[in-house]
Amino acid sequence: MATATIQTISLALAQEKKEQKKSPHDVIVREAAASLERCVKSPLQNRWALWFYKNDKSKTWQANLQLITKFDTVEDFWAVLLSAVLLGASFLAIGLWAWAEKGVLSNISSITDLGGFDPVWLFMVVGAVMFILGFAGCIGALRENTHLLKFLLGASFLAIGLWAWAEKGVLSNISSITDLGGFDPVWLFMVVGAVMFILGFAGCIGALRENTHLLKFFSVFLGLIFFLELTAGILAFVFKDWIKDQLNFFINNNVKAYRDDIDLQNLIDFAQEYWSCCGAHGPNDWNLNIYFNCTDMNPSRERCGVPFSCCVKDPARRSFGICDLTPPGNSEALFQVLEQADIALIGLAVMGQNLILNMNDHGFVVCAYNRTVSKVQDFLNNEAKGTNVVGAQSLEDMVSKLKKPRRVVLLVKAGQAVDDFICKLVPLLEAGDIIIDGGNSEYRDTVRRCKELKSAQLLFVGSGVSGGEEGARYGPSLMPGGHKEAWPHIKDIFQSIAAKVGTGEPCCDWVGDEGAGHFVKMVHNGIEYGDMQLICEAYHLMKDVLSMDHDEMAKVFEEWNKTELDSFLIEITANILKFRDSDNKHLLPKIRDAAGQKGTGKWTAISALEYGTPVTLIGEAVFARCLSSLKEERVEASKNLKGPKGAEFNGDKKVFLEDIRQALYASKIISYAQGFMLLRQAAKEFGWSLNYGGIALMWRGGCIIRSVFLGKIKEAFDRNPELQSLLLDDFFRKAVQDCQESWRRAVSTGVQVGIPMPCFTTALSFYDGYRHDMLPANLLQAQRDYFGAHTYELLTKPGQYIHTNWTGHGGNVSSSSYNA
After folding, report:
1. Rounded to an integer, what distance in angstroms lies between the CA atom of residue 480 and that of residue 467?
2. Three-state SS at 172
């Protein structure tokens, strides 16, 4: 910079020589100003020389140079003044204020009592004069940095004013508020102030004087502070338990003195309201205070109580419909700076553990909690060992470790257990926090909870989670619905841990409002029932019609998994068929043929009946399980009920296997068509806006019904988002049409042999019914009108309901007499 300045001044002087006559005085001044030694010595002077020459044309070059030569004295004086006056005065002001708090200057008012004159004004006026005079020269030299001077000048005035007002009693309780177990807060002010001013002085003077020593000192000092902060952060993380103990000790000491100092009381109340906490660990900490102590000997009116700052202030949160609320509070929130989790999960069964580990793998810090607290530590010591997963010993502890807005996932048994945990969580959470139910809850419960939690100003998400234990660990299908305001806060976590398909599309997206997510999961589970029953019927035909052994059937399913039937369920069926027990015999024939169920398939069938949607295949799949559970009755009935006896198959085995495969494929199409019809009808009932192609994509990976087949469904809805039925899409219409001959042949063969095929047959019946423009329901409606006067419509007069007196006598029959 100095070299460039020298060159510029030299050029300027050369130009002056051409424009003006030389005089002895001019030559001396110019030579002095142009001296290389002088330019190197006084860089500040040279910068201002350029500024004057370029911007102040009212003066001649000679006049400018005469002014510039005086800058040395002002610059040096300013540097001395800054170090000796500004720094010293600032430190002195802080020290005076601090010592005044200790009573050293407690009598100065009486000493300087000037007949009623307030000595505060004396300090203010004297201080103002000192600083105005001291910085008069600096203000002119630092015309481009007046903000710094204003800040320093204002800080000095403020320090003196604080000291003066402290003498008048305004700040008389600050020492008690900041009593850190014997540590004198004056030293904190002194050290912080000294560090700030030393750094500011070194940086400012070093830059103005271009003093490399000061600049190096500034850089090293700043680097040292950064290193100390980094070290402190690492130590705080490593020794967080010790720090928690110290914080607890500090908080409890101040709890004891809560009523002793009004400012301390206000500080504690502010902290408890801001962090929604109560004491260090909970309300019981207030037993340490003599006024709140809950003993029979305590005469205080506040005995067994807590400060009002411990209580929930929002009446809406008291009106939550699941349970009566009592706000227990906790102060673990004060430790958030040490240990913050992105999300919490309650329920450490296998699904919960695997979902936690999945989130941990994707870089999210998860707080784990279980009603049986010992299971938390077992999980941390075993499955979660070496991870970033943190544990919680209580719900209060868990909530305190969460970032805001807090996100809590419930993976507990559907029903009352979910309501119980919500009941306990509501008083611990704040407006905008999110509760996520990841279990198989009934969608009506989710609708109810959305409404109840909205009144408590909390967000609720009911999310379907599919994929079983493996899916939860490595990528499930997630179907979230509820309060849409929660989606931006959970989207990153959900889509990160979800299964990926295609070019990396996550099998997770927002489904819809209220119970939409759990309704979609319910239909998913119903379709799962149907898929499993269809595979069982194919297996039954292979085993009892074709008399195939397990290894043969396993190879067939492995081959089918390379076709359009490629799916998770086909894959695992092949594995099950060839699996051998410890005695080297196939395990499958040893398993009792009585299927269990958790109810989600039943919910689908019930919903289909409620909304008048013919989801026949899922209904038959549910009833097939019910029939299988009658094991003892079936054994007895097999001895008494006659039917076709299995005869040896005389046809082409390879052809019939293809018939079974095509029957399975066609029936599968019917099952999904019915499922999406139910979704469409529910969307109309609840006003949901469902993305059917997106739902199909969610099911393509991570879930039990994942298959390549679902990609075709997405393409169908991409072609026509308003598609009424998959059977009306060109691809699926042609697929079913091509399967018809084999489908009917497989069904008729099974019927002739006496093989129960409820899903194969109902799928075919639905297809035939759906493709008929005229069904015998006209007779059914006439029967209803005959005995119940339920009326009917004519083909030529749609919308007009007519009743006929079918007998011609006896009068009309009241429709209230019958309900058919």
Report:
1. 15
2. coil
CATH superfamily of 522-638+648-771: N-(1-d-carboxylethyl)-l-norvaline Dehydrogenase; domain 2 (1.10.1040.10)
Helix (H, G, I), strand (E, B) or coil at 506: strand
383, 385, 395: which is closest to 353 by C-alpha?
383
Active site residue 528: yes
Cα separation, 16 vs 20, whole angstroms: 6
Separation CA 157–CA 604 (nearest Å): 75
Catalytic residue among 528, 537, 620, 712: 528
Angle at 315 between CA 310 and CA 316, to 5 degrees: 120
pLDDT tens digits, one per residue of 383-435: 999 899 999 999 999 999 999 999 999 999 989 999 999 999 999 999 999 99
Give the pairing type, strands 407-410 and 434-437: parallel
Q: 368 near 345, Cβ under 8 Å?
A: yes
Active-site hit among 375, 401, 521, 602: 521
> pLDDT digit string (tens) for 631-647?
999 999 999 999 887 66
Instruction: Using DSSP, state whether 211 is helix, strand or coil.
Output: coil
Q: What is the largest CA-CA distance in the chain?
A: 144
Determine whether 521 is an active site residue.
Answer: yes
pTM attached to this predicted model: 0.62
Count Cα neighbours of 124 within 13 Å in the Cβ-side half-sphere.
10
- Look up tokens 């940086």; give the residue: 203
Strand pairing partners for 479? Answer: 464
Nearest to 462 by CA among 487, 441, 485, 492: 441
What is the homologous superfamily of the domain 343-510 according to CATH? NAD(P)-binding Rossmann-like Domain (3.40.50.720)
Amino acid at 403: K
Q: How far apart are CA 616 and CA 674, in angstroms?
A: 8
Report how far residue 142's alpha carbon sits from residue 208's, in angstroms, rounded to the nearest whole number: 10
